[in-house]
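Archive entry. Fields below.
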Amino acid sequence: MITLKLQLLLIAFSLVVLFVFINRTRRYKLELKYALVWIFFSAAGVIVSIFPQIFFFIARVMGIEVPVNAVFLLAVSAIFLTLYSLTVSLSNHSRKLRTLTQEMGLMQHKITEMERRMKQAEGGSDDDSR
Amino acid sequence: MAPSKPRVLLIIPAFNERDNIGPLLLSLREQGLEALVVNDGSTDDTAEVCASVGANIVTLPSNLGIGGAVQTGYKYAHAHGYDIAIQFDGDGQHRAEFVHALIAPLLADAADLVIGSRYIEKQGFQSTALRRAGIRYFSRLIRLITGQTVTDPTSGFRAVNRRIMHMFAAQYPTDYPEPESIVHVLRSGGRVVEVPVQMSERIGGHSSIHHLRSVYYMVKVSLAILIDALRGTGVRHS
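PREDICTED_STRUCTURE:
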């Protein structure tokens, strides 16, 4: 069984997480794209802790003897999925950053080259290669 | 290949190589070799040293690591219409007198990627016993997966034609790229040929691979090779 104490604790915890992520997004501190997974899981947390019958059902279906363990299992799964989404976006970002850095280096090179040519064209006598 | 003189570019990745890069660039110019230095976010005055000898240099705003730096060179070479791009270390390990031997198979259209190997004639600097053991291991792993023997899979002295240049410009491993990129080329149906070269012991600086990091290196590169093999011919770069 899930005690009332634990139930209230779960509701409070989920609500706090939900509030923090919505509020931070509201203040433009978080991108909704990345806050979404947190908002979704904490909203789900609020719902299942208000209706703990869902835990009993899940525990029965999965063959978990103590329903409270279903709580932990779901929580760990939610964290796992959140971390996965972070790893995905981290990989995307590192690829984008690499491309950006390379393009910036090449662009800088092009600008320097153009400036040098322009200087040569107007100066004429400018024999310095740099 | 084209009857006109092929355009060859040496790509020199440089991270804090102020002591070696100046003399190297001057000696390359004396030998009539065209070079592009990719300054990988050096914190010393590598860029100034290169500029003072009038070198062609691309400076990256932050440090990308060897793979990202070299890939910048491949992008440059491809965009500027070079026929051959050569990877050449800025620390004095690689010797310019072997460049002609290295590009010969490409000019004869007998290869797409040519690797300069220390272990064909076993002359010149042979690296430490421990590293040689690591290199032999990678060599066996690559043979197991691709069926081709590459005696010096970690060699960073290598030349590619436009086909591979294009491929590398689009997709190149980020760190410790050498063994993995060989498997990538073979998987894409590229021809890999090795030619004997001699290398020198690096003059200054430190190898990027040592101690505990070598364990990480072995594991990561092994995984990279195995995962690359899983890509088959269907997976293209993103």
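CURATOR_NOTE: Chain A touches chain B through twelve residues (CB under 8 Å).
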